[in-house]
Design brief:
With 862 residues, this protein is of the alpha+beta class. It is built from 22 helices and 24 strands. Strands 1, 2, 3, 4, 5, 6, 8, 9, 10, 11, 12 and 13 form a twelve-stranded antiparallel β-sheet that branches. Strands 17, 18, 19, 20, 21 and 22 form a six-stranded mixed β-sheet that branches. It has a two-stranded parallel sheet with strand order 7-15. Bound molecules: zinc ion.
Amino acid sequence: MNIKKRSVVRFFSVALLLSAFLAPQNVEAQRKKKNKKSKTETAAPSSKKEKSIKDLTKSSKKIAGLFTMYRDTITGSLQMLISENHLGKDFIHFNQISNGVVDAGRFRGAYGGSKIFKVKKYYNKIEFVSQNTSFYFDPNSAISKSQEANTSEGIMATVKIEAQDEKAGLYLIKADGLFLKETFSQVKPPRFPGASPMAFSLGNLDKTKTKINTIKNYEDNTNLEVEYVYSKPSVLNGGSQALADGRNVSIKVFHSLIAMPDNDYKPRFDDPRVGYFTTQVNDQTATNSVPFKDLVHRWNLVKKDPEAAISEPVKPITWWMENSTPVEWRETIKQGVLEWNKAFEKAGFKNAMVVKMQPDDADWDAGDINYNVLRWTSSPNPPFGGYGPSFVNPKTGEIIGADIMLEYIHFTNRVFYDQLFDLAKADVEFNASEYLQKNTVLCSFGHVMHENTLFGQAVVEAAGGSDLEMARMKKEAMLALIMHEVGHTLGLNHNMKASQLFSPEQLADKAFIEGKCLTGSVMDYAGINLTNDRTKQGQYYDTSVGPYDVWAIQFGYTPFTTEGEKVALLNRSTEPELIFGNDADDMRAPGKAIDPRVMVGDLSNDQIGYSIDRIKLVDSMMNDVKTKFSKTGQSYQELRRAYYLLSRQRATAVNIISRFIGGVYVDRAMIGQKGGTQPFTPVSLPDQKRAMKALTSYAFAPTAFSAPSDLYNDLAMQRRGFGFMRGPEDPKIHQQVLTYQKNVLNHILHYNTLQRITDSELYGNAYNLSRFMTDLNTAIFKADIYGNVNSFRQNLQIAYTNRLIAMLTGKQNSRYSNNAKSMALYNLKQIRTMAAPSGNVSSKAHKDHLRVLIDNALKEIK
Ligand SMILES: [Zn+2]
C-alpha cells in the first residue's frame, strides 16, 4: 500500500512540476499567436520578415559542441541549436551534484542517475522525451510490435522553435527554460510522508536567482553547471553550520548531455552468484520464470591484440588524482588503484588501470565527465569516508565515467557523527543507518573503517606501540579503502560474506597473511584484524585484492569466446573463497536477513570465537583505559572517546554473535552445480547453543558491559560555548548499556527471526522455539532473580519483560506468529513465579514492578 501511495504522490508532484513548467509557456505562446494573427489581418504578409538564426544570435557567444549553445553576452541567457541529425536519436542525460549541502542530502560528487532521451520535432516545437529502457522485446517475436503497450515515455519539455535554417537543417530554441528548472532531473528531495516538520527542508526553486554558471562543450558531450537556488521567507530549522543562510540555499548541479557511445560494446548479463551493479531489464518475449536480461555495469575493455592471452586494452581505464590530494598519500592511493591490475591480468588485460596526476594548472575541473577523478574534500558533515560512483549507458550497462570521493576526516581523530558515540540517545545509531539506507548507492565503508582504525590505534597506543606501527595501520587502511572504492567503480557491489576466508589462527599468523587480502574480497566491511597477543600481530587490513575480486573481474571483463567458458567460470562459485552475499543479504539491521555469515564488522570463519576474543580484548583494555588515555594538561575528551570506541566494538561483537540464533545459511549454487548444497541450511544446534551461551555471558550477564567505576567519573566532554544546552552533560551509562542489549533483543526477538525458528524446524533446525525462549529467560533472570538484582540487570529485565508483553498486546502484535506469542506468555508466567519478593529493598521494588507489569498485561490478553 505504502509503495503505491508513494508512487501516486510522486506522479502527482511530477505532473505538477511539468504543468508549472508548461503552463506559462502555453499562455505566452497563445498570446504571441494572437498578436501575430491580429497583425497579419492588418498588414501585408511580406512586410515582416522572419528572423534568422544569425539575427537572433548576433549578440551571443557561440559555444560549439554536441549541442551548440549561444550565450547572450549582455543578459547571459542561453539559446541552443538543434540539428536534423539530433532528431529521433538517443542521447544520455547524466547529472551529478557539483556542490551542495549534506542537510539537503545533496553533496559534492553525489551522482544522479543516467537516462536516455530523444530529441523530437513536433510542428514548430522541439520536444525532449525520456525513454523507457526497462524492457526487452525479441525483434523476431510478433509480440514485439506491441512493445509500447502500457509503458510511458516522459515528455520532459516542449520548446518553441525561434528560428530555423532549412538548408542546413538547424533549429534555434531558447534553452534557459530547459536548464533553470528541474527539467532533466529532480534536484530538490521530496518530502517523505511522516517526515518531522522540524526537519530541515529546502524552499521553493527561485528562478530569478537560479543561474547557469559554466558551459563546457565537447564533440561528444555538452556540460552545464547550474546553480539552483531554493528560497523561503522564513525557516524553523536553518540547517547546520554548513549553511550561510537556511532561507537561501544553493545546490549546484552538473548536467551532461552525452552522445550514445559509438562502439561495438557487447552487454553482459547478470548472474546471481556474482555481485555486479546492474540495470534491470525484463524480457517481455521470454516465457521462462526468470525473464531477466539485467545488464552488468562494466567498462568497455577491448584487447589491443585479440589473439594474445594477455594484452593491453585499446583504451585503459584512466584515473586522475585530483591536485588537492595530500602529497604524502599519493603513492599509497596510486598503489590501491593499480592493485586491481592483478585481477585484470587474470581476465586477459595488462595495464587495464592507469593513474595520472591532475596538473596544478589543469584547465579542466574534477567534475568534468571526461575525466575519472580521485577527489578529495573535507566537509563539515562528511556523508561518507569514501564513495565510488559510476554512471552507465542505460541501454547497454557500459560504464562511461566514474569518480571516487574521499573525505579528509579519514586521517583525523574526529568522529563522523558527533552523536555516534553518545548512545544516550537510543535511536542515533538507527538514524545513521536509515540515512545510509535511503542513499543506497552510498558506501559507508569509510565510516566502518574509520571507527575500526580509531579502535586499532587505541589498542596499539595502550600496548605502547610505536609511531611506525601506527603509520603502518593507517597506510593499510588507506590502501584497503581505495581498493574498495575502486572496486565499486569497476561495477562491483559489496560482498559482506567474504570475511569467511581465513580462520582466526590464520589471521594471527603474521607470515601467512602477509601481502594478502584478509577476506575473499576487498568489497566487504570486515572488522580490523587485531590479535589479543600483541606479539602475533600481522596485517590489520587487506593489502591486495582477494580471490573473489579476481574471479568477479574475470566474469565481468574476460572476452569470452564461448558461452561454455563463462559457465565454467561461474560454476566455480562453490569454491569456499568465492562465496558472495551483498547488502540485500547482510544482517546488519535486526531481523532483516538470514545468513549470519553475511555480516558487517565481522572477521574470520569463526565469527563467534573471533567476536569473543574481541570482547575479551575490550574488557582487558577497559581496566587500564584511564591511565593510558588521560594526558596531563589536556581535557578528558580523549579518554571519553576511547571509552565509547571500546564499548562500541563490544556492542558490534555481541550483535555479530546474535545473528546465529535462528540463522539459515544460504547457497546460491545452481541445481547440480559441483560443490553446491541446497539453498537453505539452518545453523547447527551446537553453533546456536554456543551463540546463546556467549550472549548469556557477554550481553546479558549482571557484569556484562561493566567498566571500572572510577572511569565513569571521567567521561566528560570538553565544554564548547553553550554546547550542553540541549541536555545535561553527565554520561548516561545505564541507557547506553541498555541500548546495546536492546540491539541484541531487537534481532533475536524480531518477528522474522521467531517465525524463521519455527519454520526452519521443518527443515533441519534443532534449536526449536521453546528451547531458545527458555534459554533466553534463563539468561536474563537466573543469575540474580532470587537475590539482589543490580541496576543494569533491573533495567534489562524490565525492558525484556515489556518486550514479551508487547509481543502479545503491543502495536505490532499481529506480526508475531501464534507460536511466538504462546512462548511469550509462557515466559511471562515463569517470570511472574521467579519474581517473588526477595533481596534488598531496590531488588524487592524491582520484582514488585515486574509482577505488576505482568499481572496487568495478563488482564489485557483476550
Ligand atoms: Zn562500499
